[in-house]
Amino acid sequence: MDGLWQERDLPFGSNSVQHGTAVFEGIRMYTTPAGPVLFRLDAHLERLLDSAALLGIPHAYDLAALRRHVRDAAAGSGLDNAYVRPVLYTREPRLGVNLRDFHFTLGTEIWALPPDDTPSRPVRVTVSPWRRPSQLTFPVRAKATGTYVVSALARTRAAADGFDDAIQLDPNSGRVAESTIANVFLVRDGRLVTPWLEDSVLAGITRDTVLTLAGDLGIETAEAPVQPGELLAADEVFLTGTASGLVSVAGLDTHTYAAGRPVTDALSRAYREAVLGDGPHRPSWLTPVSRP
Ligand code: PMP
């Protein structure tokens, strides 16, 4: 799918192209009866500011400026069901690896999504031989363009082996970290568990949303160290991310999970209600996109 790329003249020599020096966010815009909304806009923009700070990226934006830019881009797109990606990047066609030498600016790419956003089909995953980046090598809480080479490597290998996605382990502990573009949850005896942030895990905003919704539903939750074997022993496994919400895992390597997934189903329903503003009232989660 083509995006509405606003920066068609980005110099090929740009440091962001040449070295992957950029930080970004992925935000969902949903159609609601009250008009289009951006889901958890401020949480995403705060993470963007954190990503820039963690890498020492110099820029001139505060939260209000980011909010204005993204709302304007979303409104200007004329779309309502879409994936919105603000990127802090540099246009400067220079090599070098000191980020303080570059001027970073904000651009937002927007992809239209089909109007009837049907839930993603269950996926089959494998445990990747490629582990996540080490916290000793990179501040893994930063959502940076360059690190997606690690995801691409693992996903390409998984696809070649006939799987939809890969679970990647923490490089130091060998515990479950996340999938290539999503966080991982497991359900065992009605209890919901997701890998703790001590391992190499992005602090996913969908992860946080699901933990909150599970609390609403009275489901016991834990952020804890997760051994690979615990995924096999789980009753249900699912992935979470902004782009596709909750995605049920049908099988892991040679193991197939039982078909009934009551906790995943209940949380998927609650998630859908939350993004459409049908759930418990949380005004800060939905930012209206007013048309120009
Ligand atoms: N982990 C990785 C590596 C990701 O790329 C993503 C997608 N941003 C996630 C987890 C999920 O994060 P979020 O729920 O904030 O989209």
Automatic annotation (TrEMBL):
Q: In which pathway does it act?
A: Amino-acid biosynthesis; L-leucine biosynthesis; L-leucine from 3-methyl-2-oxobutanoate: step 4/4; Amino-acid biosynthesis; L-isoleucine biosynthesis; L-isoleucine from 2-oxobutanoate: step 4/4; Amino-acid biosynthesis; L-valine biosynthesis; L-valine from pyruvate: step 4/4
The cofactors named for this UniProt entry are: pyridoxal 5'-phosphate
GO biological process annotation, one example: L-valine biosynthetic process
Chain coiled-coil ranges = none
A molecular function (GO) term? branched-chain-amino-acid transaminase activity
Enzyme Commission numbers on file: 2.6.1.42
Q: Which PROSITE patterns match?
A: AA_TRANSFER_CLASS_4
- One Pfam family from the UniProt entry? Aminotran_4
Record's InterPro entries? Aminotrans_IV, Aminotrans_IV_CS, Aminotransferase-like, BCAT-like_C, BCAT-like_N, BCAT_family, Class-IV_PLP-Dep_Aminotrnsfr
> What family does this chain come from, according to its entry?
Belongs to the class-IV pyridoxal-phosphate-dependent aminotransferase family.
Q: What protein am I looking at?
A: branched-chain-amino-acid transaminase
- Its gene? ilvE2
